[in-house]
Protein kinase domain-containing protein
Amino acid sequence: QRAGCSSKCGDVDIPFPFGIGDDHCAWPGFDVVCNESFSPPRPYYGNIEIMDISVAAGEMRVYTPVVSQCYNSSNTTDSDRFESLQLNITDTPFLVAPERNEFTAIGCYTLAWLQGRDNWSFLTGCISTCASLETAADDGEPCTGLGCCQVPSIPPNLSTVALDWGNRTENPAWTYSPCNYAFVAEKDWYKFRRQDLSRVGSKSFANRTGEISVPMVLDWAIRRNGSCSSAHACVSAHSDCVDATNGAGYLCNCSRGYAGNPYVTGGCIVIIFAVAVLFVAFLVLHMKHEKKKLQENFNRNGGHILEHLGIRMFTKEELKKITKNYSTIIGEGNFGKVYKGTTDDNQEVAVKCSIKVDEANINDFANEVDIQSRVSHKNVVRLVGCCLQTDVPMLVFEYIGKGSLYDVLHGNGVNCNYVGKLKISLEVRLGIAIAATEALATCTHLLIRRTGLLTEKSDVYSFDIVLLELITRKKSKYDENKSLQIDFVTSYKTDNRAREMFDNEITSPEVIGVLDMISRIAFQCLKEDVDERPTMEQVLEQLHSVRKELIKGCKDMSIDQIDG
Ligand SMILES: Nc1ncnc2c1ncn2[C@@H]1O[C@H](COP(=O)(O)OP(=O)(O)OP(=O)(O)O)[C@@H](O)[C@H]1O
């Protein structure tokens, strides 16, 4: 565009010789008005809406109205007019592009004429019939007269398109095909659909401010200032003038090997350079789009709440670097994969997906992250920071390198520093249970509100499964789909047969009473009615009592029994 002139209206590019506003912005006859009352704004040439403009092809696509005539009975119509104007662009630089448009009429008792040029010196038309909707052409079939007909050739030099239904006063097909439609539109745009004939259902036409419309291709030329011998418009170096092929006038082209806009000074540039310019423009656009998306994610994930709380914020790019492009997977949980990484300050971290954040849970999420980052407890994995630029927020935790409790209880030591099944005494197992309960009780005490449907009592239930795994050394799903907690509850209720599930390694007559105490706690935590389950603090208290009992019992045991 020329300096000081806008080059866009809404989503549509407006290249010179077209222009909006001041006289110097447009070549005479190419003035565009940008209607800002729409969102996005829409460009108009007179009362014709512009779809797009191509300087290289010398074309402009516009929306034009469909002409229709609807019957309310076999011989009454909604309008007495038989002739309607689809387009009038006389005395403008534009003409209907002959090769790029075709005439279409739709209906089951339809004779439609297309008239144009001065004094209607051009006339063509077609006929379409169908005895019922079912006998019309199938959807997508060519318009050969069964429901629709077409005339594929439009003559050059056409600046008016008038459509006429002839002197027909009746429509015997009005019950199933009440309306006749006719239009000149871009070639191959219209695809027949039977629904276009009937009263109901959406039609193929575009709806622009209440008017049913179709795209039409117009071509243009610099017509006023004569021909190529006085071509004032081709101002760019490396541009050539060519005579218009449709009507009088001329057009400008960039010379061979050049591309761009020949109507502006310096508009034609070497093609390689033009490709580079396009590529840079694409990159800039892409980066702008990416930046906008990162910011949108950040806002949606509660960035504006969390950024003031001193939590370390990682950018999406930093996380990619830290995890070496997410190359090392160390586990997988309910929310997705967990990746290993190393931060700039050489700290090993575990990076994992959090829950999806939306308006409903944004405050809960921000609250949970805030508190987690402030919890300082030897049994709680520390939250190092988070990344909110991703679709789903990512949480960065300190890395725990000695494997999980699951690995220790059920693994073969591959993830830990030993091989085979590790012997674990009852005292150690009880110690693990107490340490985990302390951690959970601390979090509960800080009122970490869990996002989603989780509550403190659901934590009690989940913890209990760990407790059961510790005393039975069975996985929560074992022996091909048996549920540890269901089996335990059933066994507990049946003559105290829960004892049969205890891990042999820790079962002995001396400690059976202690194991019974633990299984009583486990049973309470699994109560269906959440109100009957103990709190984390109560569980902790009870486990401490169990430990006292175990220590008391140990005093009565020989050294060999304790080692075992
Ligand atoms: N901080 C960490 N350090 C080392 N490994 C970890 C860490 N966090 C998770 N992992 C590994 O990733 C696996 C999955 O962890 P994650 O927390 O996503 O799932 P989960 O324990 O099933 O809990 P959730 O209910 O959150 O999905 C763990 O079993 C562990 O192997």
Remarks:
- The chain has a mean pLDDT of 88.
- The pocket of adenosine-5'-triphosphate is lined by residues 330-335, 338, 350, 352, 381, 397, 399-400, 404 (CB under 6 Å).
- The radius of gyration is 39 Å.
- Residues 409 and 473 are 6 Å apart (CA to CA).
